[in-house]
Amino acid sequence: MMEVKPFDFIFMDVMMPEMDGLEATRALRKRQASGDHAVYPPRIVVCAMTAHAMTGDREKCIASGMDDYLAKPVRPKDVRDMLERWGGKIATNNSQSPAAKAADSSAAEPPVDMDRMLDLTDGNSDSLRELVEMYLKQTHKQFEQMQVAIRENNADSLRRVAHSGAGASATLGMTHLVPKLRELEKLGVSGNLNGAAEICERPRKNTPASRSF
Questions:
Q1: How far from each other are the two terminal CA atoms of the chain, in whole angstroms?
Q2: Confidence class of residue 61 from pLDDT cuts 50, 70 and 90?
Q3: Confidence at 208, pLDDT banded by 50, 70, 90
Q4: φ and ψ at 45, to 5 degrees?
Q5: What is the DSSP letter of 100?
Q6: What distance in Å separates the CA atoms of residue 22 and residue 63, rounded to the nearest whole number?
Q7: What distance in Å separates the CA atoms of residue 87 and residue 71, rounded to the nearest whole number?
Q8: pLDDT surpassing 50 at residue 99
Q9: How far apart are CA 106 and CA 98, in angstroms?
Q10: For residue 105, what pLDDT is reported?
Q11: From CA 168, how far away is CA 32, in angstroms rounded?
Q12: Which 3 state secondary structure label does DSSP give 11?
């Protein structure tokens, strides 16, 4: 699948038949390093998922080329926290990816990337709904925090919250929110919040529409 479709984030099951997660990750990193696979983005985050939370397991996963580690049972909140932790780094490092640029120029992105969300939840409708509800609740809270930051002219707070929201939105496939959140993040970095209130208000009003699916 990765030969035809780029992925930014992989939850890797450590215990798999034929090739385990450690071996699969080593093969993935080798292909990335070779430069012979144009569809591979420069930054692919691999998070281990294993039921065996034994001493030394995390170190083995990191040594194989993985970036992080989750012990089963995995809750939707664990997935959300992991995506928030790495989402911003993925978006930054892959922003100049030729494959991504080609994809952007070929067609307009839909508001929600359902393929990505279904991949994250393994096609389970209950898990999908729970993840989306958690995302919407957290995002609503973040927009409230950004509005407060704008009213108080707190540029650093705006930058920090917008960065977190943009990373999570990009990773989850909520593509319609990412550009505006990046705009808000840039304003926070610049320290000049002129126009930030208007930018913040438009996507905030559109967010509830994502519940419809």
A1: 26
A2: confident
A3: very low
A4: -85, 130
A5: H
A6: 9
A7: 20
A8: no
A9: 12
A10: 42
A11: 24
A12: strand
* Residue of 195 and 56 predicted with greater confidence: 195
Please state, in angstroms and as integers, the Cα–Cα distance from residue 197 to each residue in 98, 142, 194, following that order.
33, 14, 8
Looking at the chain, the number of H-run helices and the number of E-run strands are 9, 3
Pairing of strands 68-71, 45-50: parallel
- Number of other residues whose CB lies within 10 A of the CB of residue 196: 23
Q: Which two tokens stand for residue 168?
A: 């999570």
Residues contacting residue 83 through CB under 8 Å, at least 6 positions apart: 9, 120, 167, 168, 171, 172
Q: Are 202 and 156 in contact (CB under 8 A)?
A: no
Helix (H) or strand (E) holding 193: none
What's the pLDDT at 157?
Answer: 93
Q: Take residue 31 and report the two structure tokens written for it.
A: 């292909």
211 pLDDT higher than 80: no
Answer yes or no: are the C-beta atoms of 49 and 74 closer than 8 Å. yes
Q: How confident is the model at residue 205 (pLDDT cuts 50, 70, 90)?
A: low
Residue with tokens 């983005």: 41
- 3-class DSSP state of 48: strand
pLDDT of residue 69: 87
